[in-house]
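Thread: Newbie trying to understand structure tokens

Hi all, I'm a second-year student working on a class project, and my supervisor (Dr. K.) asked me to get a predicted structure for one chain before our next meeting. I've only ever worked with sequences, so writing a 3D structure as a token string is new to me. If someone could post the tokens and maybe explain what I'm looking at, I'd be very grateful. Here's the chain:
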Amino acid sequence: MAEKVVVSVDALGGDNAPEVVLEGLAAALAEDEDLEVILCGPAEVVEPFAAGQVRCKALSTTEFIDMDEHPAEAVRRKKDSSLVVACRQVKEGQAQGFFSAGSTGACLAAAILVMGRLKGIARPALCTVIPSPVKPVVMCDVGANADCKPEYLVQFAHMATVYMQEIIKVENPRVALLNIGEEETKGSAFAQEAYALLKEKVANFAGNAEGNDILAASFDIFITDGFTGNICLKTIEGTSKTLFKALKGIFYSSALTKMGALTIKPGLGALMKSISPDTYGGAPLLGVKGACVVGHGSSSALAIKNGIHTTAEIVRRDVSSLISDAVSKT
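---
Reply by user tm_fold:
Sure, no problem. This is what the structure looks like when written as tokens:
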């Protein structure tokens, strides 16, 4: 039997909230009998839903953080927002994990300001699974820290290693520094200093990686600053969507291509599933007390469900404690 886990969920997180959040949450509860949820949001949304679920508690809130608000200011000002209240449940020990598909900046600010950083962590980092058709690979950071010091990347590597081992189930993952060449002397002064520190302090460091190594899955973990990582991630996701849209246009362009599309439909479906960000449902913010997973604003019900599952799994695998142990040894 799995360990009982309580996850707080922001009912208003996402472009299609609350409907898609409720649908995904219902599916997550149905699949995991040891999952309990604190659903935070307007009373008219959360109370009727919780009344129909055995393992869901409604927590009414009166405020909402919009996508275009300044993250830190909104978190400090709107203390009764669904996002902040959900986050506070972890701080107060009512929940062990927090999930939202709301404003990424607000989620990061709330997790850091409300939940707090783990001891010894200089900067929590956003870590995500890159949708590679070869095998899952992880990139860290993808947006939490636009400006970094080389020593931060060492902590990113240790945190991402724990996540890769415990959640993605890859033993002895190979860590690479995202750079403009594979040679040790390549890149900016920042990259060269980061390389030297990673080589000295990260046992599973395998060297530099270039952009074309990511989807090829030449390494298991790609370490970079949040500015570069975010641009890289969105470029990959945007390219993927554009290519599949173009393929769909080709397949439906004539009777002949439609017949061809039918023959490869199963394989194409499997490929789309393998590179879909919905598979894991969100990116964890590593280095904070408790579990925090941030979903895409455009999350589907499937992504919401999987994001909640990922949050629960991070709690069950005690990822925060393992990160603390790993960082304390450096």
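A couple of things are worth pointing out once you decode it. The longest helix spans residues 226-251. Residues 176 and 222 are 5 Å apart (CA to CA). Feel free to ask follow-ups in this thread.
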